[in-house]
UniProtKB/TrEMBL annotation:
Protein family (similarity comment): Belongs to the CDC123 family.
One example of a Gene Ontology biological process annotation: eukaryotic translation initiation factor 2 complex assembly
Protein name: D123-domain-containing protein
Source organism (scientific name): Suhomyces tanzawaensis NRRL Y-17324
GO molecular function: ATP binding; magnesium ion binding; protein folding chaperone
Acidic residues composition-biased segments: 70-84
Amino acid sequence: MSYATFTPIEVTKAHVLGCAYSQWYPKLKAHAVKSIILKPLPQEFLDYLASDSIKLENEAHGVENNSDNEYSDWEDDLDGEDDGETAPTVTIDQLQALHDQIKAGIDKLGGAVTPKLNWSAPKDARWIMAGNTTRCTSPNDVYLLLNASDHVVDDLDYPFSSVEEAGKSSQGVEDGTDKVEYELVLRKWMDINPALEFRVFVKDNRVLGISQRDLNHYVFLEALQDELKQVIEDFIYSQVVGQLGQSQYIVDVYVSRPSNKVYVVDVNPFSRKCDSLLYTWNELLVGVAPELRLITETNVGRFAQKEYSESQVPLDVVDAAGNSEAMVELAREWAKLQAK
């Protein structure tokens, strides 16, 4: 019986830091969606994002209050009960400057943005937004979406969890020299076709493979497979390789049809922490012939699990998210169950 050899991947802190949005965006700006990067971020804002509670204050006349917000602390409405703990709250006193910057950024980018931190976008928290989207039209949308995301928490708590240098893993920030300067990225909202997003694996400045990102079967892609592979490879070799200061990374791209214009969506460290999608990491590392892999009728069953299902919530919560009365009622029922 033969076994696949586990091939280690050397990932350094420099690799991780070099894939932060503010590091790659200026180099590939001509091929990326227009973005605004806000940094440094107030510690109070980072503490809020890392907290378990979701408590926001309504925006009114450029300031915020807590009178009618449908997402304010539910326990305030539960028969006046108070457990003595106060949920972190985005307040005007602490975050006025950042709040104004976010609001101005949204206006400058056309009235709608999708946010992210240095590395991760809060796609896993789309369930909390009306319409199941990452589209934000106000600062409160940005706060809510980021606070509900496990991906964002991972950015904050374990920025170097993929690092492996000289055979030793680094599970977090170990000393002052590794302190991360966190950034809030506002990207102009772009309503894209998820079927045309692809993940490109690059090592030693060579494309190892390309994978469809959205794990659903799109019949029309099969006829375009060879054309899309050529377009993506040409773009990576002509516009990306040699621009990022490192030779291994993972690039997420979007191909706009019918023009075949390629946009860079994100750049990720080349590590097992990043989903290899339709490849196995062993295939990528041993050097199979590079190809564009798609979900087809023959393999669709292998990828039937709903995306980000581990971060999602019951349908009742999703249905109640756009209705403040339903949300309060849901919280009351949950409190009763907890009491029992």
